[in-house]
Protein 1
Amino acid sequence: MRLFEILLVLSCFALLVDLLFIKRSAKKTGLSLGIGSGVILLVQLFVEGYRWQLLLVYIMTALFILIVLFRHSEKMVNLKIGKFLKYSLSSLIVILLVVSTGLSVYLPVFNLPKLDGPEKAGTQTLHFTDQNREEVLTEDQSDKRELMVQVWYPTENSNNNKRDTLFPKDKERFKKYIQSFSTSLKLPEFVLDYWKYSQTNSYENVEILPTASPYPVVLLSHGMGTSRVLHASQAENLASHGFIVVTIDHTYSTFATIFPDGRVTDYKTKMTTVEDRREVGSIWTQDVEFVINQIEKLNSGAIESQFKGKIDLNNIGVMGHSFGGATAFNTTYLDHRIKAGVNMDGSLYEVENRDDINKPFLFIRSGNFKDWLANFDNDRNSDDEVTKSLSDELHIMKNVINQGGDVIYVEGTQHFNFTDLQFYSPLIKLSGITGDIDGNRGSSIVNQYVLDFFNKQLKGTGGNLIQGPSDKYPEVKFIKPEDL
C-alpha cells in the first residue's frame, strides 16, 4: 500500500475507536482527529489518486469524520442504542474495513523494482510498418505487418522529467488498453483501472546518455498472448547497465497492442498444432529480423532519431520469454547479425537443422526443469512427434553447452517468474504460474544472469556468474551435458 493509503486506513480505525471508547467530553481529541483524518483523506485522493479497493474506507472515513465533528454540537441528538447493537455494527464495520484494506494489499499499486545499474533509463516508443510483408493474421489482404517497439537506453535525464507510467498516460488510450486486457481476463473493466498509477523507473523521450563508443543492443520478445509491458523491468535494468534494449510487441499475439492512431489490436493467433507453432514462429522470427533492419536505419540516420551513431551493430543480442524465448533461439541461429541469445523458459518450435548452433547461447529454465528431465527419460524412446521434438530440443541444449553456452534453472520459479506479472499481485502466486520464490528475488536473479551473459558476449567484460554455481545465488543450478 502507498503511504497515504496506510495513513488513511489507520486514521479510519482511530476514528472508530474514538467513537466507541472516547467520551464525548473529550472535545479537543475528537476535533483534532476529525480534522487530521479529513486532511489525510483529501491528500490521498488528490495526490495518490482514488482506488476502488479503498471505497469502503473512503465512505467510512467520511462518515466517521462527520459524526466525530458534529457529536459535540448542541443540536446533535444524543441517540441511545443498546450495547449489543452498538458492538454488532462496530464489528461489521471492522470486517468491511479489513476487507477493503485486504483488497488494497493484495491488488496493490505496484512499481517496478529499483534499477541496480549506474545509469538512469530512458524510453521511447516507435511504430514500424514492414511494407514488404503482408499481415497474415488478419482477413484484410491489404494489411501490412505493423509493429510497436519500445526502446530503452541509458540517460542522464538532465531535464528532471518525471518517471514514466507503465501503461499509457493518455486517458483514452489507457481505457482502450484496459478494455482489451479485461476482456481477455474476463474481468470488469474497473477492476484494472488502478494500473494507471503504476510506475517504471524510466523517463520518457529524454536524451540518450552521450558515449564515446556506441551501445550494444539487445532485442526482447514477450511470450505468446502477453505483451512487451511484462518485460519492462528487464529492459530498463539492462539499459541502466549501458545497453540499448528494444522490446517488441508481436501484433495479434498480445493481450493488447496500441498504435499511435488509437487502434488497439488483441489476440488473434491460432496455436492448435505443431505446424501452427512453426508458422507463427516464422512470423515472429521475421519480426525480429525486420526490427534489426530498422535499428540499422536508426543508427545510420535513414530513420531520423537521436540514436544515430549510438548503436553498436557488431554487438547485437536477442532474448525472450516462452514463445519469445524460442524466437530468440531461432533468430540467433538464422541471423548472422545476432551475436548471442537468451531463452527464458521457452520450448523450441523449430528443432530441424538447429543442432549445429555455434554462437553463445543461454537457456534459463524454471525450477521444475530437473523433475521434467527425470520424467521425460521414461518417454524418450517414444516415436510420437512431440516426444521427438522435445528429444531434439535437449540434444540442441547439449550442443549449446558443448559450444561454451549454458543451460541453467532457478529453483523456486515457475513460468511467469520470468516476467513482471509476479509484481502485479501476491495472489498471482496462488494460481501456480509463479513459484514459491519471492518475486523481487526471482527477478533479481534472472536480471543478474542475463546481464552477466550479455556483458561477456557483447561487451567483453564480466562473465563470472555463468562460469558455474555461485554462493550468492544458490537457487541457480547448472545443467551438465550428461544430464541431458
Protein 2
Amino acid sequence: MIQWLLDRLPDQKVEGHLLIDEGEEVIDLVRHHPIVYWRAVVEAVGTVLLWLIAIFGPIDLGWLFILAGVGLLCHALWLVLREHRDLFVVTNMRVFRVNGVFSVRTATMPISRILDITVEKPLLGRILGYGHFVFESAAQEQGLRNIRYIGDPDQRDLTIQRVVQRSGFRGPRRPQNGT
C-alpha cells in the first residue's frame, strides 16, 4: 500500500542532469531505504490518535486536536516527499545527488575525484539491509560527503568501484583468463 502511494509521487528528473552528448549513462539510480519513512508513519499514527481524541475527547477542545492533527499530517507528508525526492545517481562519468521538494539541489563529483568510499553499516542497518556512504575526495566539504540510508550498500559500493575501475582512474585492469 505504501509503495503504491510512493509510486504516485513526483520524481526528480534525472535525465535533465545527464551529459547525453558526451555519452553519459545512468548505471545505478539509488533511493533511500524504506526505513527513512518510519518518522512519517509515526506522525500519521499520531494524526489518527489526535483525531480520535477530537471525536471522543472534550468537545470544547475538539477543534484544537483536529488542527494539531492536520499540522502533524502535513509535516508527515513533507517528510515523505523530502525523502522520496532525494536521489543518488551513479553514471559512467560521475556520481551526483539530486534532492529537494520545492527548490532542487544538485551535488556532483566526477569519478576521477573519488579517492575512497567508506561504507558504514550500523547494527540495525545490517539487520534491515541499509548503510551509509562517506565519500572522501580532495575537496572534503561538499554535497556528496555523506549519503545516508542506502539500501544494499555493499552491492552499491561494488557498482561504484566497477565504474571507477572501468574509467581507468585506478590503474590498468588485470587481464582475465591469463590473456
